[in-house]
Design goal:
Blueprint (H helix, E strand, L loop, with lengths): L2 H17 L14 H13 L8 E8 L2 E8 L2 H13 L4 E7 L10 E4 L3 E5 L8 E6 L3 E8 L2 E5 L5 E5 L3 E4 L1 H9 L2 E4 L3 E5 L8 E6 L3 E8 L2 E5 L5 E5 L3 E3 H7 L4 H10 L10 E2 L2 E2 L1 H10 L3 E2 L4 H4 L4 E4 L12 E6 L8 E10 L2 E6 L1 E6 L9 H5 L1 E6 L9 E2 L14
Parallel strand pairs: 2-3
Antiparallel strand pairs: 1-2, 4-7, 4-10, 5-6, 7-8, 8-9, 11-14, 11-17, 12-13, 14-15, 15-16, 18-19, 20-27, 21-26, 22-23, 22-26, 23-24, 24-25
Helix pairs in contact: 2-3
Length: 407
């Protein structure tokens, strides 16, 4: 076959294949795509946990260059990828969306405006419940899809909330809200009344940790304002001025135990982090929040914070408020898997959400001995009095309050 004939044959074959397949070309393999190596390196370095950051990027070859497509919540990760590609002399076109999305038009913050907002793994009501956020919680808004917003909670969790649960704020509007005087609801459950009277109508329910703007005090009620400008009245016996609550707050062993028992009997709810239902880590998260600390969301994240106290079932070393972690230890062929957490309350006992919030014992002779969790115990970590960037103290945070220069 002459060169010309070979060329005509190859051209005809290519034309035939294209005409028989309207779909895109099969992507080139990892061995053929040099961008994959660098994308994976960046993901491992900057975004090891997709629950708190995203770097969903691909490189597609087009006319001798690679088109980078996808999205990221981390501009530093994108910058690192570009540097790596430049150093490798790989030509590319950047088509990556960095969040927050521009079409939000500056409304890149939100405040939860209902007692508990359900935040889901995907933008649909049938999706898995990933976590919750209580009224007055500031969220970072990253993008909008239909009537849903991709948001990041104060514990860095990324998931979707529907528009009915939040009010969008600009940076300036949020700072103005932070500078205002506020009230925090401290009882597990309650309600907001239309007037300063127990016999008046109901504006909404309220749960522990709800935060409102304070407008005044009348007849034993706080007059409060919601993030969406609704108003109502909360009993002064069920709430506190936020600044006073924060200043008087002491995250002690006894206070943690007292808070944990106020939530006794709450039903287990996968993804729950409120008095309306809690999963195991949502329960410990709620207990610590009501004692002035924001801790990581999941048990597998919480286990990496604080000080290691025990790994040998030496429970005499534990103090009240310590967190016990359970799961499957690492082997030569598998990684450790942390699947459950509870809080030590003394006397050989821990409190946890499993079916419901209840107390179990590590003492084999006790009537509430929890043999199942005893056998899968991994370790205990301590959060109290620990300096750890994963543990945020509200007294040192500007989450709900303005910075001194703005306050």
């Amino acid at each position: 076959m002459t060169f010309l004939n070979r060329y005509i044959f190859a051209f005809s074959l290519a034309t035939f294949l294209i005409s028989c397949n309207d779909a895109k070309q099969e992507p080139i393999t990892a061995e053929e795509n040099p961008t994959d190596v660098y994308i994976n390196e960046v993901q491992e370095e900057y975004v090891p946990d997709r629950r708190v950051a995203r770097f969903d990027v691909t490189g597609e070859e087009y006319k001798g260059k690679f088109v980078l497509r996808g999205e990221t919540t981390n501009p530093e990760a994108l910058s690192s990828l570009k540097q790596k590609l430049d150093s490798a002399r790989i030509e590319y076109v950047d088509s990556i969306q960095v969040y927050p999305a521009k079409d939000l038009e500056g409304k890149t913050n939100a405040l939860v405006r209902i007692s508990v907002a359900n935040i889901r793994s995907n933008p649909q009501h049938s999706a898995e419940l990933a976590t919750q956020a209580t009224l007055g919680t500031p969220l970072k808004v990253l993008k909008k899809e239909g009537e849903w917003y991709l948001v990041q909670t104060p514990d860095k969790y990324l998931a979707w909330v529907d528009h009915g649960g939040v009010t969008l704020y600009s940076d300036e509007e949020l700072e103005e809200w932070k500078a205002s005087e506020k009230v925090i609801f401290t009882e597990p459950f309650g309600q907001v009344n239309e007037k300063a009277s127990e016999n008046s109508g109901t504006v909404s329910d309220a749960v522990a940790g709800n935060i409102f703007k304070l407008k005044g005090v009348k007849n034993g009620f706080f007059e409060v304002e919601y993030p969406d400008a609704r108003t109502g009245f909360v009993k002064t016996s069920e709430a506190e001025n936020y600044s006073d609550w924060l200043n008087n707050l002491e995250a002690s062993e006894e206070n943690l135990v007292e808070t944990s028992k106020k939530l006794m009997g709450l039903p287990y709810l996968w993804g729950g982090t409120s008095a309306k239902g809690v999963d195991c880590s949502g329960y410990t998260k709620t207990v610590f929040f009501m004692n002035g600390m924001i801790i990581p969301r999941d048990a597998s994240q919480q286990v990496h914070a604080g000080e290691l106290i025990d790994e040998e079932k030496n429970f005499e070393k534990l103090q009240k408020g310590d967190l016990l972690f359970f799961g499957t230890p690492a082997t030569d062929t598998s990684k450790e898997k942390v699947v459950h957490v509870g809080m030590w309350i003394g006397d050989g006992q821990f409190i946890h959400s499993s079916g419901r919030v209840h107390v179990s014992s590590m003492n084999s002779e006790a009537s509430n001995f929890d043999e199942f969790n005893y056998n899968r115990y991994l370790r205990t970590k301590r959060y109290l009095d620990q300096e750890d960037p994963k543990l945020v103290r509200l007294k040192e945070s500007e989450l709900f309050t303005a910075s001194p220069s703005q306050g």
